[in-house]
Amino acid sequence: MNKPAFTRTDAEERRRLLIAAATRVLARDGASGASVRAIAQEAKVSPGLVTHHFGGIDALIAATYADVSAAVTAALDAAVAGAGDDPRARLSAYVAASFAPPIADRALLATWVAFWGLVIARDDVARLHDEQYAHFRGGIEGLLADCGVPPAACRRSAIAITALVDGLWLELCLSPEVFDAAEARAIAEAQIAALLDHQAQNTHRSP
């Protein structure tokens, strides 16, 4: 009798298998449907494997949040790195990547919605959320600083851009028939250009 394929994988591959299954369950069934049994069934493994590798559902959900966040970060970082050395082009690449696969994806949105509910219910997920969004904002702050935005203005400008991009991303994923990625980029770019022009004017007026 053949043994299940998962018994031939190492511990890290089993963890990856379970995290991928948890991501699919969260996207399909939401946080309320993400149980040890449901995730084990999705991964085609025994429920005991979840406990063995993560100790329980809470740790698996936290690991899944971190994994999804890391995938988004990797996509953004790759886009920025591929844009060359021009600061404005790098900022534009960050924005464009937010409205393109794998980030502009309804399954990813569904997973994030599940996580957002857990941010309110669980302190550990709330901490992960705060850390991840601080990382996103920090990345934008660095891009803005490279574009010449004064340090004192970088934080609020980054918060504004994060909110703008997140809002457009949300609507693009929810209602792709209303506007497309190109329009989302154009809207974001227009607002960012106005913000950068405003900051430049304020800098020139400063004594």
From TrEMBL:
Keyword field contains RNA-binding: no
UniProt-listed InterPro entries: BetI_C, Homeodomain-like_sf, HTH-type_TetR-like_transc_reg, HTH_TetR, Tet_transcr_reg_TetR-rel_C_sf
Protein name as catalogued: TetR family transcriptional regulator C-terminal domain-containing protein
Superkingdom field: Bacteria
Native organism taxonomy: Bacteria, Pseudomonadati, Pseudomonadota, Alphaproteobacteria, Sphingomonadales
GO molecular function: DNA-binding transcription factor activity; transcription cis-regulatory region binding
Pfam families in the record: TetR_C_6, TetR_N
DNA-binding region: 35-54
Keywords from the UniProt entry: DNA-binding, Repressor, Transcription, Transcription regulation
SUPFAM superfamilies given in the database record: Homeodomain-like, Tetracyclin repressor-like, C-terminal domain
HTH tetR-type domain residues: 12-72
Gene3D superfamilies noted in UniProt: Tetracycline Repressor, domain 2
